[in-house]
Every structure is written in structure tokens, then in C-alpha cells.
Amino acid sequence: MQDRQKGLLLTALGVLVLSPDALVLRWLAADAMQVLAWRGLLMAVGLSLLLSWRYRGGLPAALRRCGWTGLGCALCYCISTLGFVQAISLAGAANTLLILSIAPLIAAAMAWLFLGERLALRTLLAILVCVAGVGLIVADRTPGNSLPGNAWALAAATFLAGNFTLARSRPTVDMSPALMPGALLVSLLGFVFGGSPQLAPLQWAGLALMAGVLLPLAFTLIQLGPRWISGTEVGLLLLLEVVLGPLWVWWLLGEVPSSQVLLGGALIFVTLCVHSLLGWRRSSISLAG
């Protein structure tokens, strides 16, 4: 299997595994910081087991190889997770995932600023259109829509983009071990500012499965993607969660987005699809040439 095919397959699988995350968070209906306490701890444990199996006795060395870049990835992961869980709690699944979907475009802008990568005109135009789409979502006055929640979602997208950009800055180094200290920091902040939630046994089981098994697997796979495929292709695959996440919540919990949120989301979704497909076509032509 070629590296590019490997990157596409691993990233797509990671996004599919991640897609029920918003559903679980809305189903728990607990204080965000309390959920983060156990979510971060379970994520760290699950990651350590997964990476220990993958690296055998070489995990400490893999963690050291991440260096200062890995520390940056850990901090970005921590803040993006805080933003994501707070946004899900305050603004709902659809708003959060739609705003989060612009992370690859923010990453493209960051790569232009900090890595010297060229910012294509289509990317700049896509950013402007997506900003308009986010504006529609934020301006929605339907009861239940939350401006602080939307702001948390935007913060989550920005720091997720920072994580992508840092990982891309050192493509020969696997940055997934850096997620462990990031998850532990999330847990520490959750216990300090939230404590432990009061959940039913079935809810504890769902949280343990999502945070201890599915999240470590999903983020490990997604973190590997930028090593072999472009941010454009990662962004196209991340759109799977934008579609699947709200559908899970809509289908099982009956949480229906407002028409204005759907309009803003459609604007973002179509723009990202067109942008990603144009980028994919351009890269394919370049490779063929």
C-alpha cells in the first residue's frame, strides 16, 4: 500500500470511529468540566495502552522525539478538547461540528504564516465564504443557540488547526504520543474545576467506551494522517464527522438544528467540499504530470 493510500485509509477510519463522540456528550448531559475530568483520564489511559502496544518498549523514546513540537501539540489538543466539550454542552452538536469543520482552512492559513506554505487563492476565497457561514450560525437567535458555545467551538477549531500545523511541521515524527500529556492536562483541569459527574451505570459505560477506547484509536489514526496526505485531504475526510455527528444526535436524541444553522452549515459544507475536491484534483494532475 502506498503512503498516500495509507494516510487516506487511516484518517477516514479515525473520523468514522470519532463520529459518535458528540452523541455521547449530549447523551451524558453532565457538567462539561466534570465530563472532561474522566474523559481526559480515560483518554490518557487508552492512549498509553494503545501506544505501548504499538511501540512495545520504545514509547518513552517516541515521546522524547516529539520534543517541543510535541509539547505544542499537547497544549493545542488540551485547549481544543476543552473548547469542543464546552461547545457541545452550550451550543449543541450541529453548531459545534459545523464551526469545527473550518479547522483545515485555519490550518492552511497557519501553514502559510508559520511554515511558508503557499496559500492558494481558492483557499483564501473558501476561508472568506466559511467565515460568512460561521457568521450565519453565530447570528442565529433560535432558543438554545449560545454565543459562548459558538465561541468555544471557534476556539476548538483554531487550536485543532494549530495541532495539525505543528504535526505537519515535522512530518517524519509521529506526534500521537504527545496527545497523552495533553489528555492528562485536560483531566487535571477537569478535576480541579469540575470534579466527578453523577452518572448512571450505563452512562459510565458509554463514557468509558468512547473516551477510553474509541477516542484514543480515532485521534491516533487522525494524527498520523498529515504525515502522508495533505491538509486538504485531511479536511475532506473530516467532513465525514460534520455529516455523521449531527445525524447521530438528530436520529437518537431528536436535536434538530434551526433553518439558519442548516443554511450556514450548508454554505460551509459545500465550500469545503468544492475546495477539497479542487485541491485533490490539482494534486492528482501534478502527480500525473
From TrEMBL:
InterPro entries hit by this protein: EamA_dom, EmrE-like
GO cellular component terms listed in the entry, alphabetical order: membrane
Residue ranges constituting the EamA domain according to the UniProt record: 6-138, 148-274
Domain of life: Bacteria
Transmembrane segments annotated in the record for this chain: 36-55, 67-88, 94-114, 119-139, 151-167, 179-196, 202-222, 234-253, 259-280
Keywords of the record: Membrane, Transmembrane, Transmembrane helix
Protein name: EamA domain-containing protein
